[in-house]
Amino acid sequence: MKKLLIYIVLILTINKLNAQGKLMLVGGGGERDESWSWSNQPYSWAVDQSTNKKVGIISFSESSDPEWLPDYFKSLGAVDAVNFIINTTDLANSIDTYNTLMEYDVFFFKGGDQSNYYLTYQGSEVQNAILDKFNAGGVIAGTSAGMAMISNPFYSAENGTLYPDQALANVLDSKITLKNDFINLLDDYIVDTHFVERGRFPRLIAFMANWYEATNELVGGIGVDDRTAFCIDENNVGTVYGTGAVNIFSASSLNQTDGKLNEKDITVTQLLHESSYDLTAKTQLDTYTENTSPNVDSYKRSRVIISGSSNANENNSVLDILSTLEKADAIVVSEMESSIEEEYKNALESLNFEVTLIPSTVADEECGYASLRNKIRETDVFLFVGNDLEVLSQFLLDNPNGQVIADKLLADETVSFFLGDNAKVAGQKWVTNNLSDPFNSYFGDLEFKDGIGLINGLVITDAYSSSTTDFYENNTSSIFYGLAKYNLQHGILINRNSIVDIFNENDETLLTGGGNYSSIVVTNTSTSGDFANQQVNAGGNVRNVAGFDQMKVSFVHNSILKLGNSLSSDIQFTNELARPTNLTITDNVITFDYDYQNPEKFILEKKIDEGEFEILAEISGEMRSAIDTDLINNQLISYRIKAVDGSIESCYSEIVQYRVITSTDNAIQNNLVVYPNPCTTGRLKLESNSHWTYSIYDLLGNLIYSNTDIKEQVMDVSTLKSGTYLVIGRNEKIIERKKVIILND
After folding, report:
1. pLDDT digits (tens, 9 = 90+) for 37-63
2. Which of 41, 134, 225, 358 has the most neighbouring CB atoms within 10 Å?
3. Is the dihedral of CA 205, 210, 213, 217 positive or negative?
């Protein structure tokens, strides 16, 4: 008798397993009756998994084309497909409703508002029909809201929808209404829909954390993209069909502080079309073919702060960090024609910084900005704000002045702040068009460019605010897609009014976050991955969606996340010699300016007419003038000068030209007489036939003597050093030059 009872129990158990129903979770989006449609394969699967191939389509209201979906199911092999509008408790509680529904082996729940399903069907005959049909081996399917109600627990949305930024602000938000007293067909998972389209992965993890806080139970998460289905068979193995991904989340803990999630141990597997996953064993059953593992070097020790906000009045956390820095100088890089750079200049000066403003539109010219580049090398604090991203990226990568900044940002002692969308260029790659067209990711049109590589990955700022709602899919998918495509390590999503601080401590690169929201760090821990391959339209476009065998997602707020080991940059900076400026020549005297510290010497070069430049003089680094005594009438003379310090040379100054014209009338030349020459008596006589202005210079260009309106002059030169001097006389028509040798004992 005992053996007979055991045999009966085994038979009943086997029958129950065999009768286990199937689920089709559809993330939303419209079906298409086309040969290439994403919905053909999963909807056919639902029909094929049923016994009588009859589909009951359940909703709250009639669609504008009520027969379209029934006809579509019939085209895929359904024997029959019928709409049921069940929108009152009387209908839901009717035994006739139960009996009618049980004639169909596929229940398909349309989208809308899952709170309507819950409040109307909970405890009703419709609920009984769902459970009985599932236990009899039927197929329970739903799209959007119709999918959301299937899991246990599930999000009932009784208090309205929860947006991603609200989830990042508070995982205990009153809008998170989770229930476990409904149909409960998928245990130990919470599901969410329209996943990448509406940027909902912060929301799903907030659901998981909220449930953990309320019950101390850890449940997984399943996020299904729109136009994507997850078909789960009787063995609890799910297969993906469609244009997007199914995201499977799990966590060993889900900690929060004051409602903000702080958790480093959340894993995600992203499944693409025809990938399968065992929900019981929590294992992907197939292998991706692309190598998506990251190429990681040691991190630099420079400190990088990124903010989701541009305006100074939204960046108190940034100003707080600045106030703690023991630095004297700061550079603000901004090209916006607004007051934003002045706001930060004033804020920095109030913190006792000496501030230099550099526009990212500064000329792509090397020789004229050596002093500026030296200032960059001597500065340790940099702010980037208000720049057009294309301009800023080109400036830092291609402009010789910007390249010095990019190098300096890698130095151990540097602290850099990237504010608002300017933070994007701090990564190795940045997505250029995530905010230009809401459908760039959907149609596979996301574009990426090289960043400056301070962060081994990508950055998206203002990722989930109400102002970027239309771009949630671009923002979310670009992180995962970019990590896979370029084998990057990290993706950072940050909201307005929040910051992320990346710094070095004990040879480790660490990250912390602050502000109004938790920030999200996606870490590529994959060994393999792939990319979406199902077309979204007749033109064959494919979404920018990636799949990974494993990833890690961290939520950071006033907590520490280790990114990796750090390595000193060992960058050595040598100041350039600035080019001399304001080179001029007057009456054979050449003068110039040099506003930087004195070099070893200056080299003055001269060219006559179309000849080659030759060295005219080497001038001591303390001097700023020289004289050219060898000028011939009507020659075009060109001059240039450079600074030299050992093996380091500056650029040449701008070239100045000078044409010598002593007189236009040969008859009146040689009217200036200087004698004796050489002068050995200590007295030098100057004579002319009219009133002249006289000047005497030494060969370094120093003015020794000058006088005006004199026809005849005797000068005492007994105190001058022996050497060659230049006497210049001029009147209204004539310039005469005479070299004189003075010999004194």
Report:
1. 999 999 999 999 999 999 999 999 988
2. 225
3. negative
Residues in CB range of 258: below 8 A, 6 or more apart = none
Whether the Cβ atoms of residue 321 and residue 307 lie closer than 8 Å to each other: no
Residue 404's closest CA among 378, 368, 425, 427? 378
The set of residues, in sequence order, having a beta carbon less than 8 Å from that of 658 and lying 6+ positions away, is 585, 636, 637, 638, 639
Buried b (16+ CB within 10 A) or exposed e, 552-575: bbbbbbebebebbebeebeeeeeb
Query: What would the two tokens of residue 460 be?
Result: 């998206």
Look at 122-126, 391-395, 465-469, 474-478 and tell me which has the smallest mean pLDDT: 465-469
Q: How far is CA 89 from the centre of its chain?
A: 51
User: Structure pTM?
Assistant: 0.84
User: Average model confidence (pLDDT) for the chain?
Assistant: 91
Q: Kindly report the number of other CB atoms within 10 A of residue 168's CB atom.
A: 29
SS3 content of the chain, % helix, strand, coil (to 5): 25, 35, 40
Give the pLDDT confidence of 382-406 residue by residue, as tens digits.
999 999 999 999 999 999 999 999 9
**What distance in Å separates the CA atoms of residue 227 and residue 246, rounded to the nearest whole number?**
11
Interval 680-735: pLDDT, tens: 888 988 888 777 788 888 877 888 888 877 778 888 988 898 988 888 887 766 67
Integer Cα distance of 65 and 48 in angstroms: 25
- Cβ distance 518 to 557 under 8 Å? yes
